[in-house]
Amino acid sequence: MGENCIxxxxxxxxxxxxxxQQDAIDQIVGDIVxxxxxxxxxxLLSKLxxxxxxxxxxFPMGIGITEEVTVNDACTGCGTCSRLCPMVNIHIExxxxxxxxxxxxxxxxxQNCPKNAIHHNREKSSARYRNPHIEIGELLIS
Length: 142
Ligand code: SF4
Ligand code: SF4
Hints:
By secondary structure, this protein is α+β, with helices and mostly antiparallel strands. The protein contains six helices and four strands. It has helices at residues 11-16, 18-33, 44-57, 80-84, 108-112, 136-140; strands spanning 69-71, 90-93, 96-99, 118-120. The protein starts with 10 loop residues before the first helix and ends with a helix. It binds iron/sulfur cluster (2 copies). The site of one iron/sulfur cluster has 16 residues, from α5.
């Protein structure tokens, strides 16, 4: 499946994988329709990554990526990041976004900023990835 963690993967590569991702989704849909019973066990590496992330990011103790992101001058103050944040963690003041400490590191603000103005200090590249089948407007009304 697609990987949208910008500190872990380069988003440029995710676009090239969209066919593979669609195939995986089709497979899952098929399994659901056929009511297959199947449990995929996590690998040891996956368990280690999850436990290290939990220490830092687990809600409500974590601060997420709040202290690791910067907003550059490309920001127009449009407020999209604020409206998309599921934790109401971003507010716009004087045309600039400010982050509070309820971040769950979902990455929505970073991936969806129309100006690519939000950057993580450990991001693999400045490329961003969005699901090509979903418009930002659809996320805003969901
Ligand atoms: S979505 Fe991007 S351009 Fe809009 S306010 Fe947030 S950081 Fe600025
Ligand atoms: S959108 Fe996600 S990553 Fe961005 S501040 Fe909100 S919770 Fe954190």
